[in-house]
Amino acid sequence: MILMGAAGTRVARGVSPVLCVDLDGTLIRGDLLWECVLALLKARPTTLFLLPVWLLRGRAYLKQQLARHVRLDPARLCYRAPVLDLLREEKARNRRIALVTAANRELAESVSRHLGLFDEVHGSDDRLNLKGPAKAAFLSELFAASGFDYMGDSASDVAVWRHARAAYVVGTPARAKQAATVTTLQANIVTERASWRTWVNALRGHHWAKNLLLFLPLALSHNLTIVPILRTAIGFVLYGFCASGLYILNDLLDLHSDRQHPWKKERPFAAGEISIPEGLAASFALLCSALGVGLLLDAQFGLALIGYAALTMLYSLYLKKIALLDVFVLSSFYSFRILAGALISATPLSQWFLAFSLFFFLSLAMAKRYSELLHANDLVASGNSGRGYRVDDRELLLSLGVGSSFSAVVILSLYVHSPEVRVLYLSPEYLLLLCPIVLYWLGRTWLLAHRGELREDPVTLAIRDRVSYGAALASAAVIAASMIHVRW
Predict the structure, then answer these.
(1) How far apart (Å, rounded) are the C-alpha atoms in residues 241 and 309?
(2) Per-domain residue ranges of the chain
């Protein structure tokens, strides 16, 4: 939303003052410095150890080195549509527009070439960090004759507005009021901070339902005593913190590829609704609290959390790029939850069930990847999907995924006949009815994927899918019947 200030007309008569536009936080949602850091982390993680060395020589030098080591595609940045609309209107009036930013000049020039809106570009080099008072002095000298209007967003821009003829503010009304105290307010493009719902989305709050798998060992062993349940409940929360912290890191690393994805571009970090520093801080806090408390609560459970976090980081940085290996690792994250639940509750876990869960979740992981290949043909074909697949790999994933479904059901039927089951159930033969229920649910999941109707994680879909709830109720009825002794 654009709100006009008190001055609804031009500040100067005749020739309009040059409109100088900031880049970070103003033209784009985000900061090129942090965008470069993330790109460097994903491409060459070990190079990050050089960041403190570069920073010792000044922020301008740091930006210069990042620009040399990273190639950012300006088409993948998150631009503010209202700002672009305003600039196009001014351009149509033949107004002179300059991009003036604290970001590295080379990166700023690539943005300018991509947009085609700016008459000139000024940015930081390896000696000058063009920000705050330095930017104010630079613009005052450069445009001493014509004067300039300035479009910015941050507190450091107040020093620039003090020397400008008029201010265009991209930010909250409070920031616009701050600018109006030092110059004429020409317009305010209102922005808002991320809501709690946006944060819940970023933390993948709906994915916490996956952590219910921690209670599965207790349910399978019929261990419903208070202490194991309480310990598992605490483990549920800690696992949620750990997983949410890792989801944030994964989304940050996939920032640029997600912006080209049909639906992942709506994620909070890809859409620029939450800043990169905020995301990194939240991830660090969640991971430290989860791993620290987890180790104090139970050493084995804490080590399982650390193993899960380490494998997830390897997956985000390297393993997700290796075709087929990525889905095996992805499926193991579910088995990790079951194992963690068994450790924190000190509940023995059947090897048969671990084998079943491996093939069951492998099928779901392949369904997820198959669906992504189906909906992002252009992204996969261009090699920018962040995965190691080609478009024609879909049929292989379909075959392997369906095969994994049948393997899971075969293992389930063998598990039903195992000695452990006969100890826990009075009529274990009824449990065989779980096989067609599970096979139907998996088959339907693959049917949705094949039709292009699976647009998310299958486990997440099950949370709000009525058919899935029906299958769950049918399974519960079968389990209840198996616990009753029936004479034939």
Answers:
(1) 11
(2) 2-190, 194-208+225-334, 350-488
